[in-house]
Amino acid sequence: MKMEETQIKIRPAVTTDAQEIVLLATQMENNTIAIPKIGKVLAGFLESGNEAVFVAEKDGNLLGCVSLYINWEILSGKQARIDIIVVDSNARGLGIGKLLMIRAEEWAEEQGSRTIKLSSNINRIESHQFYEKIGYKTTKDQRVFKKELKKL
Fold it and tell me: Structural domain of residue 103, as residue ranges?
C-alpha cells in the first residue's frame, strides 16, 4: 500500500458532502450531471438503502467519490453497478481510485451481488487501463441510447 493511501479515509457520504461532490463531478469528461439537483439526488441515494455513495477524504478535503446501486437483471440476477467514480485531478495516482473501488466492491458483496459492472466512455483510455489493472475486464462494446421523458 502506498504511504499516501494510509492517510486517506474512505467513508459513506453524508448530505453535507453534496457541494464537494458537485465540484468533483465537474471534473468528469462529458459531465451531464444536473449540478443544482445533486444535493437532492444524493439525499435520495442515502435514504434508499439500495444505493451507496462513498467518499475519499484526506485532511478534511474530499478527493474522490464513488456511487453505486443494486440492479436486478432478468438474465443475470442481482448486479451491482457503478454510477460514477471520480478522483480529483490533483490527487490522481495516489491510490484513491483503488481504495474507492475496493470499498464499492465490499458494499456490493454485502448486498449479495456476485458481480459489479461499470460503463466507461470509449475515449477514457487512462480509466480503462486503471480498471484493467484492478481486475476488471471488458465484456462488450455497445452504444447507449437515451430518450428524454416528460418532466414531472
Answer: 3-133
- Residue 57 DSSP SS3: strand
Residue 129 forms part of a structural domain: yes
pTM for the full predicted model: 0.82
CATH of the domain at 49: 3.40.630.30
> How confident is the model over 90-121, as pLDDT tens digits?
999 899 999 999 999 999 999 999 899 988 88
Residues in a beta bridge with 54 = 12, 66
Which residues, 6 or more positions from 70, have their beta carbon under 8 angstroms from its beta carbon? Answer: 50, 51, 78, 79, 80, 81, 108, 111, 113
The one-letter amino acid code at 2 reads K
Q: Cell digits for 97?
A: 481510485
Confidence of residue 37 (pLDDT cuts 50, 70, 90): low
